[in-house]
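Record type: ASSEMBLY
Status: queued
Input:
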Amino acid sequence: MQIGATQAYFPHRHLLGIEGLTRPDIETLLDMAEEAIEVSRRVDKKRSSLRGRTQINLFYEPSTRTQASFEIAGKRLGADVMNMSVARSSESKGETLIDTAVTLNAMRPDIIVVRHAHAGAVHLLARKVDCSVVNAGDGAHEHPTQALLDALTIRRNKGRIEGLTVAICGDILHSRVARSNILLLGALGARVRVIGPSTLAPDGLSRLGVEVFHDMKRGLEGVDIVMMLRLQRERMAGALTPSAREYFHFFGLDEEKLACAAPDALVMHPGPMNRGVEIDTAVADSARSLIREQVEMGVAVRMAVLEALAQHLPNV
Amino acid sequence: MRGGVVTRDGIIAEVGETVREGDAPEGARAIDCAGDVVAPGLIDMQAFVGEPGAEHRETIASATLAAAAGGVTTLVSTSATLPPVDDPAVVDFVLRRARDTGRVRVLPMAALTKGCEGKEIAELGLLQQAGAIAFCDGARSVKNALVMRRALTYARDFDALVVHFAEDPDLGSGVMNEGEFAHRLGLSGVPREAEAIMLDRDMRLVALTGARYHAALVTTTLSLDALRKAKDEGLVVTCGTSINHLTLNENDIGDYRTFLKLKPPLRHEDERKALVGALSEGLIDVIVSDHDPQDVETKRLPFSEADSGAIGVETMLAAGLRLVHSGDVALMRLLAAMTSRPAEILGLPQGRLQKGAPADLVRFDPDAPFVVDPDALHSRSKNTPFDGAVLQGVVKATVVAGAVAYET
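Status: finished
Output:
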């Protein structure tokens, strides 16, 4: 039994990034995810489209919500899900990524979900295994399921994505969330702005088809969606910004800055939030915040992705 | 030019159009080269030969076999070995190993600073007496301007050539060229300025000290501007670039191919074209292979974790001929950058087809195509950036001091 009555065709074996997906590919996943939301809101959430399948969540970086989201998504579809946090096991024994991949591959999983601290690591692993691979974040490169859940959240609240203006604010340079969102929102016809100090949002990013702003109030003028990014603490103190308080003064989202956006603008954040650093608590918890809804959409999108990839798994 | 070459006792006895079939002295072996090109054996000014300390990556035996197969008859080895070549005994070791196991000439460079650490000047005089041909710290820059000034000043007393890899180590801490492609791949970038800032500093220190300076590997238009200015001012500076930077660009990294991870990184196509232009006009003096064998374990890693470096001594000529076949560089200009120019800079008698010069020769068919098969290459490591590429230019024979070192 599938999530929905009909299933659209998704022509990829892996989901390594938004790059390489066409607009119809993305819309297929979003439509499947809509159906997964309904499934997730029922009392009986269990489906059988991945029954008998083995899903391994291989996380080289600590993660709470993404890993939990993938685990719940896999289990709702009937897969046997195993979580591996390699930060504390093999890698500390010196086993390389490829050796781990080959070892896991020998256990015949059907889907491996991977998060790794280095860009391209998931591509490297995908070349060495026979099963489907989902990128759950690779370094500063891509985090495709985050971009998909963001798009689903926007589409449900605004009714469309095409023609909207979306501002992504914060540490763009080191953000896989920003990179995947830039690609996805661009593919669906949104106008994308990025806002941050030049050390975190260099002007060269305009080559990716976005407008770059270093003044937050100007950047937020008239935008429909304000997407905040998490600023990692080690990047705040002295290296790329002078201090957390200076950062919040200029780039933290508070009511005053948000007033520059469109009157019906909505606020998003991929979590976990640094309250008082990149976002003011009053804004994060306001009626305009979609932050909790994003988490629900995360499960739905991941169900859609797993089921879409399962189309290509061998059935004998 | 058509003609012939006669060698005797390791020396070119006669050369030129007047040397014809039948001019060979009695008892000599006559070889009909059948229209192939005969050139001076190539001189590669920058190659890592593995010894001492990295024999799992390369040995002098395997490096010189690869060199011979690529038409290279003189390998200038870099100093950043383990231990580094910062002691006369290590120079002696390399020379002895080359004598006993090498197929082509190996001329060791020695360290410019002790341990290649950029802190104290190495024993330049003693190292030179032991046989060091020039001084460099491998692919490490001397960051401290005071140390560099002293090294240059002291080197001048021995008329020693200082070969410097110019890149600011902090600004150059990224893993690929800075720009749109790095943004797309989510990799940290190295701006062109990382190289230019260090080179600008060096040009001022050369002007201050009057030392002989060779920029080991330049890759950007900013560096070319600095070198042009320095040469115009009459400073004794020369420069090289690598065969990789002349024939590949950052887009070749594609899907995180670690064999294309180099230091300095492959640049934008505009920079590559500028390098080719500078080679053609003679601003770039030398082409090096920057041969850097890496084993599988240091390359089968995520891109930012993998080591930099590519093998290249065996494919340098064929890759360089790409520029000739595309009409960008004249054959004689290409060969000069691999033969007579490095010979002049290093003060070597070889590298020219001249009566009385050492009989180091290469015979090659410049048009014959082949597919680069890493397993067929002779280096102990297989990290070639030309994996699967179609190149034109097959070496038929390599002669070192009148003796055949390689022949197909």
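Annotation: DSSP finds 13 helices and 15 strands in chain B.
Annotation: The first helix of chain B runs from residue 60 to 69.
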